[in-house]
Design a protein that fits this description.
By secondary structure, the chain is of the alpha/beta class. It has 11 helices and 12 strands. The strands form 3 sheets. Strands 3, 4, 5, 6, 9, 10, 11 and 12 form an 8-stranded mixed β-sheet that branches. β7, α8 and β8 (about 230-235) form a beta-alpha-beta unit. The longest helix has 25 residues, at about 70-95. The protein is globular, with a radius of gyration of 24 Å.
Length: about 325
């Protein structure tokens, strides 16, 4: 290590890095101060001290202006990693005991309905009853952010662009269909074609965009009714389902998830029925994350279960 690096490591206040991460995420000194429980001048002063320590301008700021410089972007990426490592220290220390009793935090997309994953969770609890599990649900890009920042043990989500720092294991493939609820004019009508979908309102997921993970679903909707309005959206499958059932419009759902509602007469499947859009779901891990024993055991159990099931048996709703 050269002398400059040693001096930086000795004099850098690690709290400034945490402040910087919050500031960049907030895009506002006012919002960052509120999240940190500080006054605005304190945040401004801390940013100035960090810039002076590093000898670089990190953020260009002024009336109506907030731009992270190239140096600031580089520092942010490193600071997220450092902050994640520090947050995990207490977890690792708590785990030094004979009994497996660590905490596992799983970040997950909302429409992950997978029986073998449920079995893995149940078996893990039987084997390690002292361990605790937390599941947070959000859009797939939030899942990736949680894994990259090491705030989650691992993630289960859809993937559009693979992050270079993460590892991906294919978990299962699901197919999406279009549905309407009992209050919709098309509900229960036989012999419908894709042309019958035009002129209707739609509901969908917030990630239903050409540049996001549900691109195949977006293309299906655009082909069926390119001019029709989306009147409701959510990142949560249950809320998309709620809006479809309530009659707000036609919407996409995973076929294997909607199957029971169709059988019970709550939802009606709409065309097209052939070649439904395919969406792949992945287990996402960060090789830089130091897992506690509970995290490692659950991840190993899930990985082994996936490897033991042929791909054709991990394709749902086709």
């Amino acid at each position: 290590m050269d002398r400059d690096a040693e001096n930086l490591a000795r004099h850098l206040d690690w709290n400034l890095l945490r402040m910087f991460v919050v500031l960049v995420d907030s895009r506002s000194i006012t919002l960052a101060a509120s999240k940190l429980g500080l006054q605005q001048p304190s945040v401004s002063s801390a940013l100035k001290r960090l810039e002076e320590t590093l000898g670089r301008q990190l953020i260009e700021r002024g009336p109506g202006k907030f731009r992270v410089t190239d140096a600031g972007q580089q520092l942010y990426r490193e600071a997220v990693d450092i902050n994640g490592s520090i947050l995990r220290l207490s977890t690792l220390m708590r785990d030094i005991t004979e009994t497996v009793q660590g905490h596992v935090k799983i970040a997950m997309a909302s429409h992950v309905l997978c029986e073998f994953f449920d079995d893995v969770l149940g078996d893990f609890h039987i084997q390690h009853p002292k361990a605790t599990v937390e599941i947070i649900v959000g859009p797939s890009h939030h899942v990736i952010e949680q894994v990259v920042s090491r705030q989650a043990s691992f993630g289960i989500c859809l993937v559009y662009h693979k992050h270079p720092k993460l590892h991906y294991q294919h978990m299962f493939r699901e197919h999406f269909g279009l549905y309407c609820g009992p209050k919709h004019p098309l509900f229960g009508k036989p012999n419908l074609t894709t042309a019958d979908l035009a002129g209707n309102n739609w509901v969908s997921f917030t990630t239903d965009q050409l540049s996001d993970v549900l691109r195949p679903v977006t293309l299906l909707r655009a082909k069926a009714a390119p001019q029709d309005a989306i009147v409701g959206s959510s990142a949560n499958l249950e809320e998309v389902r709620r809006m479809i059932l309530s009659g707000l419009g036609i919407g996409p759902l995973p076929v294997h998830v909607a199957k029971r509602d169709v059988e019970m007469g709550y939802l009606h499947r709409l065309p097209p029925y052939e070649d439904p859009p395919e969406i792949d779901v992945y287990v996402t891990t960060n090789p830089a994350t130091k897992l506690n024993r509970a995290e490692q055991l659950l991840l190993d159990d899930l990985t082994k279960r996936i490897d033991s099931i042929p791909l054709e048996d991990r394709i749902f709703g086709g």
